[in-house]
Write a structure and sequence with these properties.
mainly alpha
Length: 196
């Protein structure tokens, strides 16, 4: 198998898992498609190293890169496209129906419902602190002044609210990531059978 075939195989085997992983963390199919394209652009750029690894190591490498790109995206709220542009790759244009399908496959409707329920369970002070910090991206100092409480109180409210949301989402993440891992194992098993 030449490099192009080997790269196509890793994309076929891991592309959907990476896309679902990123969709579930960005809550946005289009952003997830861009981050997935960046992940595989970096994989192509590093193919001399990545191509020599076994399937499990390749998967670990891809998810490490995807997590790093996600972290960078979340910090800056914009996707850096340097790796994609440097290779002259085009980020695929995704139609609305395709985005809906990606979001359904990633379980976003269910996750949104869970978050809405959990937000409703928070007390109003925590909910407002979360809204100002996460949705409006206000500083702790601004929120402190607006709510008339100390910055430490604001930080505590935001932290408690985020922890509550995180606990509510843990079962969803574990279940869907387990499904993605199982899908990857089945693909590997089928590929091994075909190769035998």
């Amino acid at each position: 198998m030449d490099d192009a075939d080997a790269f196509s195989e890793i994309y076929r085997r891991e592309g959907e898992s990476v896309l679902i992983f990123l969709t579930r963390r960005t809550w946005d199919g289009e952003t997830a498609v861009e981050l997935t394209a960046e992940t595989f652009a970096m994989a192509l750029r590093s193919w001399h190293t990545l191509g020599a690894l076994g399937p499990e190591q390749q998967r670990a490498w891809l998810f490490t890169v995807a997590r790093r790109l996600l972290s960078r995206y979340l910090r800056r709220t914009t996707v850096e496209r340097r790796a994609v542009q440097r290779l002259g790759m085009q980020i695929p244009r995704v139609e609305h129906d395709d985005l809906l399908l990606i979001e359904r496959r990633a379980g976003l409707p269910e996750l949104r419902h869970t978050v809405a329920l959990e937000l409703a369970r928070l007390n109003s002070a925590q909910r407002e602190a979360l809204r100002l910090r996460v949705v409006e991206e206000r500083s702790y100092e601004d929120i402190s002044v607006q709510l008339g409480v100390s910055q430490q109180t604001v930080r505590a409210r935001v932290s408690r609210g985020l922890r509550a949301l995180g606990r509510a989402l843990e079962p969803h993440h574990a279940r869907l990531e387990g499904h993605a891992a199982e899908t990857g194992r089945l693909v590997d098993r089928d590929a091994a059978r075909e190769g035998a």
